[in-house]
């Protein structure tokens, strides 16, 4: 009997848990049809281990451990090494903008199918340059969005993707009962509870909206509140009110615990909307207007227009006003009834079926004319960046009106921590980390050290730093 094919599920860095949660849902849905391996630029990657998924961490360019142009080469070599070690048949990238390093890895591995999970609902005019990467992929999968009828972004008119229902971890990790969820979160199941989750970096000044929402709920003495951003949870609250606020620390996947809540105030990101509303939690959506690509404004407005949620714009008083509306039992019941009519979100299983079929039938990537032209363009850009150097590249980008890239101006002679453990404290600490997928071969470890030495300019006789105790 042939072994199940391996599929690498890769995620960008992102600002929250969205990419990881979607890929975890797909990984679980694969079942015994394929062996998934998660490869992520997010320091939160350890959470997928709770689903029994193997994972490897790779630092994103935002960590600033190496010059940007060095990082792209490093990423391409990391991806290539993992594909060769695992003999993966399919590589799946969930993110809005495929990195240059990924495209280089694609060119070097025509025997592997590359898939782009490309969410829709892009802000008007945002990220259009990323669409030039389309020819490098053998399949594009677009997760459904409940607000897709209002989508006016760059992908909305394209017909190059296979559209599936919304992808949510709830399909594979269903809701706990209210009693179970409240017990796990430390909430009283006999009192109404509200969730305040404004996301990572949401609403610019997240403290004011969060505290405004908390105070609005606590104005009713029966309510208790749970928050997902612990450092901000009790800012400026009197001691008596602060005692009624529960800080949710390391709760994943939060979607499983939504039955504990009678109301929520949330950012309007993809995962939040597609988890809270199907879970029938009456919700005030507050769009994050600082996102680079995701059109949370349109998504939240659509949900409010069709009666699935209330909406606040984040301005002073708007959240308090919306929460007061949510405190009305009749309003909450109306929202619950409408959300109960949403269809089942089965995008994870639909995507898993596409990937498992591709793993069995893929017979090699054939570069199109568009891809070959794009490859020449990328090679020319890479050569120009090498010639200009990091400082010169930054000056040129500024002259063209583009954002300066992250990273130092020259390679750092630094010894990263080398580990097989996905310890979040180590991943997020102030030092680079070379994480190696457990169970891999000595040859893979040797190759990884070669890649790291080149990126960090280690002296030849240097010994890698062990994982801190």
Helices and strands in order, then pairings?
Elements: E1 6-11, H1 18-30, E2 35-40, E3 54-57, H2 68-86, E4 90-94, H3 100-108, E5 113-117, E6 139-143, E7 162-164, H4 178-185, E8 193-197, H5 207-218, E9 224-227, H6 239-242, E10 245-247, E11 263-267, H7 270-276, E12 283-286, H8 296-305, E13 310-311, H9 318-326, H10 329-339, H11 347-361, H12 369-399, E14 417-419, H13 424-427, E15 433-435, H14 442-456
Parallel strand pairs: 1-2, 1-4, 2-3, 4-5, 5-6, 6-7, 8-9, 8-11, 9-10, 11-12, 12-13, 14-15
Helix pairs in contact: 1-11, 2-3, 2-14, 5-9
Structural commentary:
The chain has 469 residues and is of the alpha/beta class. It has two domains: 6-167 and 351-456, Glycogen Phosphorylase B (Rossmann fold, 3-Layer(aba) Sandwich); 174-344, Rossmann fold (3-Layer(aba) Sandwich). It is 36% helix and 13% strand. The protein is built from 14 helices and 15 strands. The protein has helices at 18-30, 68-86, 100-108, 178-185, 207-218, 239-242, 270-276, 296-305, 318-326, 329-339, 347-361, 369-399, 424-427, 442-456; strands at residues 6-11, 35-40, 54-57, 90-94, 113-117, 139-143, 162-164, 193-197, 224-227, 245-247, 263-267, 283-286, 310-311, 417-419, 433-435. A seven-stranded parallel β-sheet has the order 3-2-1-4-5-6-7, sandwiched between helices. It has a six-stranded parallel β-sheet with strand order 10-9-8-11-12-13, with helices on both faces. The longest helix is centred in the last third of the chain and has 31 residues, at 369-399.
């Amino acid at each position: 009997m042939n072994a199940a094919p391996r599929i690498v599920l890769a995620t960008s860095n992102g600002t929250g848990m969205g990419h990881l949660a979607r890929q975890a849902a797909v990984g679980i849905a694969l079942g015994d049809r394929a062996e998934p391996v998660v490869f992520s630029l997010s320091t939160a990657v350890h959470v997928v281990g709770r689903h029994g998924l193997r994972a490897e961490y790779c630092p994103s360019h935002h960590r600033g451990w190496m010059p940007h142009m060095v990082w792209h080469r490093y990423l391409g070599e990391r991806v290539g090494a993992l594909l060769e070690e695992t003999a993966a048949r399919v590589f799946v990238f969930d993110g809005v903008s495929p990195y240059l390093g990924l495209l280089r890895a694609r060119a070097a591995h025509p025997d592997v199918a590359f898939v782009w999970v490309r969410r829709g609902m892009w802000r008007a005019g945002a990220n259009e340059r990323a669409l030039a990467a389309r020819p490098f992929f053998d399949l594009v999968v677009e997760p459904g969005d409940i607000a897709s009828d209002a989508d006016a972004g760059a992908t909305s008119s394209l017909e190059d993707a296979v559209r599936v229902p919304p992808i949510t971890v709830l399909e594979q990790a269903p809701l706990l009962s209210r009693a179970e969820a409240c017990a796990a979160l430390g909430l009283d199941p006999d009192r109404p509870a509200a969730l305040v989750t404004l996301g990572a970096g949401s609403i610019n000044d997240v403290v004011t909206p969060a505290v405004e929402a908390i105070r609005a709920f606590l104005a009713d003495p029966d309510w208790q509140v749970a928050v997902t951003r612990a450092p901000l949870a009790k800012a400026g609250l009197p001691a008596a009110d602060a005692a009624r606020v529960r800080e949710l620390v390391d709760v994943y996947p939060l979607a499983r615990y939504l039955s504990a809540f009678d109301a929520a105030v949330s950012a309007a990101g993809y995962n939040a909307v597609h988890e809270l509303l199907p879970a029938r939690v009456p919700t005030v959506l507050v769009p994050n207007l600082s996102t680079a690509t995701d059109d949370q404004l349109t998504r939240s407005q659509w949900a409010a227009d069709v009666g699935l949620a209330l909406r606040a714009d984040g301005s002073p008083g708007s959240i308090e006003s919306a929460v007061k509306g949510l405190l009305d039992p009749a309003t909450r019941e109306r929202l619950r009834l409408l959300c109960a009519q949403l269809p089942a979100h089965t995008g994870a299983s639909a995507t898993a079926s596409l990937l498992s079929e591709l793993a069995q039938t893929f017979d090699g990537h054939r570069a199109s004319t568009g891809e070959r032209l794009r490859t020449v363009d990328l090679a020319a850009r890479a050569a120009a960046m090498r010639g200009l150097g990091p400082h010169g590249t930054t000056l040129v980008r500024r002259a063209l009106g583009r954002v300066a890239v992250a990273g130092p101006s020259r390679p750092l002679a630094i010894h990263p921590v080398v580990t097989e453990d996905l310890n979040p404290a180590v991943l997020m600490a102030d030092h680079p980390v070379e994480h190696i997928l457990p169970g891999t071969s000595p040859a893979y470890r040797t190759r990884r050290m070669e890649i790291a030495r080149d990126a960090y300019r280690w002296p030849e006789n240097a010994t890698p730093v062990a994982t801190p105790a």
